[in-house]
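Comment thread on ticket #2218

A.B. wrote:
> Attaching the input chain for the structure job we discussed in standup.
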Amino acid sequence: MDGTGHGGRVGLHGRMHSRPPRWETARKQVDLMIATSKLSGIITGFFAATLVSTSVWAQAGPKPKEPLTISVIDVAGDLQVSQPAIENFRKAYPDLVSRFVFTKATAPELAGKLKAQQDAGRVDIDFVLTGNDALAAGMDQVWLEVLPKYKDRLPDLEKLYLPGAYAMQKMARGQAFVIDWYPSGPLLEYAPDRVKDLPDTAEGLLAWCKKHPGKFMYARPSNSGPGRTFVMGLPYLLGDKDPQDPVNGWDKTWAYLHDLDSCIDYYPAGTTATMKELGEGSRDMIATTTGWDINPRYLGIVPDEFKVATLKGFHWVGDANYMAIPKGVAPEKVDVLLQLISYLLKPEQQAYMYDHGYMYPGPAIHNVPIEMAPRESQETIRKFGRPEYQEMIANNPVEPPLDAKPIVAMFDKWDRDIGGAKAKK
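C.D. wrote:
> Ran it. Output below, let me know if you need it in another format.
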């Protein structure tokens, strides 16, 4: 495979980007998680789980008069990762939950849907699984502010989370909770039999796209983790003024995206379409992440022999999915949902976050080695994971994604100035 980071701490224009200490620590934590040996992982996981369970967990809340039906909406594709752990809660606490009702939707539509329900006084969505896209769109409007009001009902998050996950937790401003986290991307995934002139710089990718029009693709950032990670990673690759300010600090990035648009046919509404088109042969190269590399190859959507690469100056841009409670949910349900959040952050349930690589590695908390994961998850990572990921995580900076207001501004500007006219709904 081409690209294990290319030395990646200096941008293409020679500008050194600072690395906040918490993200340096996050990189080391992920590296440690992946590298843990089987025996030491089992021992560490057992004692860590015992320690966590006695040191950071809050007391359970009151029980409802009768078991509740809880409606869950997923706008991040997270149910494929977390649904087994959510169902475990129902099995463990049948006196709290009789059943979960699961639905799915797209991220851009969620905030408006919740606001309409809240304005009408009829909220029928109890629990939300979301990326930072829909979370940001509804920030300070549709989400219940859980912290600090219910602090005593939840674990000590700073002690519990990996540093990278805790950095993203702070972005949620007490209105949501990280359920899984990963360094993410941006990565390029390509068909090696069709790509013989693999680019290794951002300028090279642009030239390749123009030479092979219609053969590169990324999805609309507001509804695609790889899409927004690709866009958020460009300021580091291009040496832009301020990677955290898409309005005033991305002159090179917006110019690049505008130029790149000239050789892109259209922008799918979600990531799955890019994977299918890569696998079927209509595209030769797409934007991806660690999870979106591993999981579609496991599912057979993308051939196993396809490769990933990075560009010179590469920085990881972390990503996470969150759990949130909308405003307007009945108090007795809020009590149960707080217990659900706490439950899903226990090591035994976090081990499910390895899944089949969708958020690789996946767990958001300390001391959850892969040996704690279900056997089928371990087999998936063994077969479809890439040994070079450990080195790539170890040798390249891990940066935070854009905060709530900047990411909404980025989505709006991209839709308005770059791809809105060519984005499929």
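A.B. wrote:
> Thanks. Noting for the ticket: The beta strands are 68-74, 97-104, 127-130, 177-185, 187-190, 216-217, 285-288, 307-309, 316-324, 398-399.
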